[in-house]
Amino acid sequence: MTRIHQTLYAERREPLLSAFGFKGGYLTELWQSISGLQGSSGTTGVGVGVQSILWSDARVFVQSGELEGNQMMADMTRHALSLADGVEFNTPLELLDHILPDVYAYGQSRTGFQDLRYTFALNSLVTVDHAAWALYSGEEKSNFYNLVPETYRAVLTERHAELASIPIIAYGMSEAGITEIMEEGYFFLKIKLGADPDGDGDQEKMLEWDKLRISQIHEIAKRYTSSRTDSGAIAYYLDANGRYESKSTLQRFLEHAGQIGALEHILLFEEPFPEELEIDVTDIPVRLAADESVHNEKDARKRIEMGYGAFALKPVAKTMSMSLIIAKLAIEQGVPCFCADLTANPLLVDWNKNLAARLPAIPGLKVGAIETNGHQNYSNWLQMKSWHPRAGAPWMESSRGIYKLDELFYETDGGALQASPAYLELLHNS
Q: What is the pTM of this model?
């Protein structure tokens, strides 16, 4: 039994190299939340999180703006820490189950949305959950894999030596930028769709923009090959973030992809529809992946019934604890999973790798996979890397689109559960 004796909180506002566009909007900075949970033995678990209000509930972003929306989520994290103070738990999953309902209710009140998306609450809890795993690891003197309850550990069957590093092709990336990514050896591309070119929400304009964008990218990518895909070609992972309002619009996009020879390159198409549209997708000719629409086990089961064939797990956006719950259900049902990003900082990238490294490969790939785009977006990426407890470790850098994971990575959880002196200093000075 682990008891939380004291809680600490700090935050940093990290600027981006340029405005980051998706869901028809643009982010200019990402708030980093840092939590400290001190156990009764004196051990302190340090967790970090990245707030993305545009991703977790775009309505909050539109209504309140970037600054105020970030403040709302930060307040939810502080509230979560106040709830956790003095709590005893057997596993971090138990702690999450204990505080999530109250944090969600507080978020409803704070944002004014009674139907606030659960991802907004989960996003606010990533730093707390991460700190709970770190405290649990320190007090139990064991690594992540051995601490995972057996019922969830049973589905973590892999131990990949290599993970595909998935870069992001955002709305504004130029042809030169795309070519540079291809020359660097990346072979599985995450492509953002669903742009709002004139800001009026017009679906026809969005569709035409998306068709032009996939044509532009495919014209470049088709010139390259890879030994790590089953087809030998560059693979695509499309993400519309719920911007397609009808099945027919999606089908028209896929027809275009087929006409230009891009359809067979698409291994995943993530969240084409708003989550409230419960559309049967069993007849869609590509594997659809669920992400924001899956907040818990019940949502995952519903998406499987609708025909979704993959889940994007996000320890860095929806907590490791909830990700394990969803992974167990999905893998038992034969639905592949992979770990997606939320523009994670370097420490969170390695936290994400701890799950990604143990998931079966996505059909069409010969290796595991993890999305990472922080190096493409943060102004202070090099400084943030220096704050990693194992800064300079070989597994932190990808080469030719691949992260190589050695035995030390597995023995130390990639450093993800160790207390960073830099983050500890922020906590103690806050």
A: 0.94
